[in-house]
Amino acid sequence: MIQALMLWFAVINIIGYVVMSEDKNKARKRQQRVPEKTLFLLAAMGGALGVLTAMYRKRHKTRHLSFRIGIPLLLLLNILLYGYFLR
């Protein structure tokens, strides 16, 4: 159980980071973007750390209040849930 959860944590956070980074690249090229709902969904599914890391490393969505507040709150929720399931 613990190994599966840790694998999920790694995979979903890598996906969150990559999707957020790709959205930044698409924004620069003025291409079709990843919906914000998708970014929040990835964060809610356990990938908030990856999304938050990409958000600040790539300087993407940092002006959006919903991201500045929502993603850290989802990270807190992720920490609580991962902690609960690892106990």
Mean pLDDT across every amino acid position:
96
**Sheet with the most strands, sense and barrel status:** none
Total beta strands? 0
Label the structural class.
Answer: mainly alpha
- Would you list the SSEs in sequence order as H and E? HHH
Number of helices: 3
Describe the structure.
This protein has helices at residues 2-28, 36-57, 65-86. The protein has 87 residues and is mostly helical. The protein is elongated.
Helix-strand layout with pairing:
Elements lengths: L1 H27 L7 H22 L7 H22 L1
Helix pairs in contact: 1-2, 2-3
Give keywords:
0% strand, single chain, mainly alpha, elongated, 82% helix, 87 residues, 3 helices
Summary of the model, kept short:
The protein is mostly helical. Helices cover 82% and strands 0% of the residues.
